UniProtKB/TrEMBL annotation:
This is EamA domain-containing protein. Residues 16-153, 166-301 form the EamA domain. It comes from the Bacteria. It comes from Candidatus Gallionella acididurans. Coiled coil: none annotated.
Length: 308
């Protein structure tokens, strides 16, 4: 390949990576808006989560089957199987369940900002468990992030009065569960591969969600408006499966640092989508809080990348 052709190919790859990362971020951010829209029809969180996973799991089963046929992969050990089971239950089942519960009580914008705190939680968990040192830059980043959340929380308290604390605690628990998952997933991913790992843990989470629905609901509870099913399919395709694969494709083309920086548009995207589709307020306090959260998380993310 000539130098000019290589340059054109490289440029196209970078552009594709940026587009993939951007679409993935918006897809993930749209999930909260779809959940809030579905709640208008009085569907409960367990049913809605089960529908989302039921429509998502066929895609991940296909990927898992394809990965299993790959002769270049090593066999999965018993230790890895237990790790996949535990991480799938914590990182995707529990995190998703708490998130869907919390969205009953808080705005989509606040939910996305709280979830976006997970990098700060990873830093704190690593400091406690692995005795990693927390420097001044990280402390400043943490202060900025949580100050931003406090501002948006106070805004939601003013709007919803009594429901914001419960919803915020539930979503914070969701972010914490996902942070625990990230801390524990690194070694397992290195052993079995990112694509195979993701397919397996998503299958575990989907099975848990469906079992929870079967244990707590009747089949008649699936007699829901067609609109709920449409939103569930949209969540599965555009806010679960497609963003997951686009994110992986983006990281292959532009690297994890640039992908994560582009992903920071997610909370802002949610706030604007919620303004358009849900009629949620778009205030100066929200924007200032969002900027503080994004600044803090980016400071931590960039510092971690530099350390690596």
């Amino acid at each position: 390949m000539s130098t000019a052709a290589h340059y054109i190919f490289s440029s196209r790859q970078k552009i594709a990576g940026i587009v993939f990362a951007l679409v993935a971020a918006i897809g993930f951010s749209a999930k909260a808006v779809m959940v809030k829209l579905a709640y208008v029809d009085a569907v409960d969180p367990i049913t809605l989560l089960a529908l989302r996973m039921a429509f998502s799991v066929p895609f991940f089963l296909v990927v898992a089957a394809r990965e299993n046929r790959n002769k270049h992969h090593d066999a999965i050990t018993t230790r890895d199987k237990w790790a996949v089971l535990g991480l799938g239950l914590v990182g995707y089942y529990l995190a998703s369940y708490l998130d869907f519960m919390g969205l009953q009580y808080i705005s989509a914008g606040l939910e996305r900002l709280i979830l976006f705190l997970y990098p700060t939680m990873v830093v704190l968990i690593s400091a406690l468990v692995f005795r990693h040192k927390v420097g001044r830059t990280v402390l400043l980043a943490l202060a900025l992030s949580y100050a931003g959340i406090a501002l948006v929380f106070l805004h939601d308290m003013h709007v919803t009065q009594h429901d914001a604390p419960l919803g915020s605690i539930l979503v914070f628990g969701s972010a914490l569960a996902y942070a625990v998952y990230l801390v524990g997933a690194g070694h397992t991913i290195a052993r079995i591969g990112a694509t195979r790992f993701t397919a397996y843990v998503m299958t575990v989470a989907s099975a848990a969600c469906l079992l929870q629905f079967a244990a707590t609901h009747e089949a008649a509870d699936l007699d829901l408006p067609l609109r709920v099913y449409g939103l569930s399919v949209a969540m599965a395709v555009f806010s679960t499966v497609l963003p997951a694969f686009l994110l992986a494709a983006a990281m292959r083309r532009i690297g994890s640092m640039h992908t994560s920086m582009i992903g920071s548009i997610g909370p802002v995207s949610t706030i604007y989508l919620a303004y358009v589709f849900l009629g949620e307020q778009l205030s100066l306090v929200q924007m200032i809080g969002s900027i503080l959260v994004l600044a803090g998380v980016l400071m931590i993310s960039l510092k971690k990348r530099a350390a690596n």
